[in-house]
Design brief:
162 residues; alpha+beta; five-stranded antiparallel sheet; 30% helix; 28% strand
C-alpha cells in the first residue's frame, strides 16, 4: 500500500544526512550591494535548528571569487578548486596570489573557450607546462592556457603547489 511504502521511504530518508555549504552576505548590505552578484537579487532568511536566523543574500560558489575580488579580499586560497574552475569557466576572472600573483580568466581563442593564466612569469613557464598547461604565441605574446577539458585537475596541481 501507499502508506507502507511512504513509511519505508521516510525511515530510509531519516538515516541520511545531506550537508551543504551556503554562503550568506549579511549585515549592512547597501554599501556593498553593487559588489554582490546581479543574477540573484533575492534576500533570504536562513534559520537553524536552535532558532537563530540570518537575513541576507545568498552567494553561490561561482560568485564567491568575484565577490572577494570586488571587496578587495585576497582569500582565493581557501576556496575549493572546483569553485574556482567553475567561476573561471563561467566567464569570471579570478585573482590568485599563490604560487605567484596571476589572474585566471576565460578567453576565447579561435572560437574556443580556454582558461588563461594572465601575468605568469616567464621563469614559471616550464613548471606550468609540466603541470599540464600549454602556451601559444598570439600577436607576438606568449600566452599560457589550462586545458578547458582538464581545468579542475590542472588548477588543483598549480594551486596546491604554493
Amino acid at each position: 500500500t501507499f502508506e507502507a511504502k511512504w513509511s519505508a521511504e521516510v525511515t530510509e530518508a531519516a538515516g541520511q544526512v545531506d550537508t551543504e555549504t551556503i554562503r550568506l552576505a549579511t549585515g549592512l548590505l547597501l554599501p556593498i550591494w553593487s559588489a554582490l552578484p546581479s543574477d540573484h537579487l533575492a534576500v533570504n532568511r536562513i534559520a537553524d535548528a536552535h532558532g537563530n536566523s540570518w537575513l541576507g543574500r545568498l552567494v553561490f560558489d561561482q560568485h564567491v571569487v568575484q565577490l572577494y575580488t570586488k571587496l578587495g579580499i585576497a582569500k582565493t586560497d581557501d576556496l575549493p578548486v572546483d569553485a574556482i574552475a567553475r567561476s573561471v569557466l563561467s566567464g569570471r576572472s579570478v585573482d590568485v596570489v599563490r604560487p605567484f600573483p596571476m589572474t585566471l580568466r576565460r578567453s576565447i581563442v579561435n572560437g574556443n573557450p580556454r582558461v588563461e593564466i594572465v601575468d605568469a612569469p616567464a621563469s614559471q613557464l616550464p613548471w606550468l607546462k609540466s603541470l599540464g598547461c600549454f602556451t601559444e604565441i598570439i600577436a607576438y605574446r606568449t600566452r599560457v592556457f589550462v586545458p578547458a577539458t582538464d581545468a579542475e585537475a590542472v588548477l588543483s596541481r598549480i594551486l596546491k603547489a604554493s
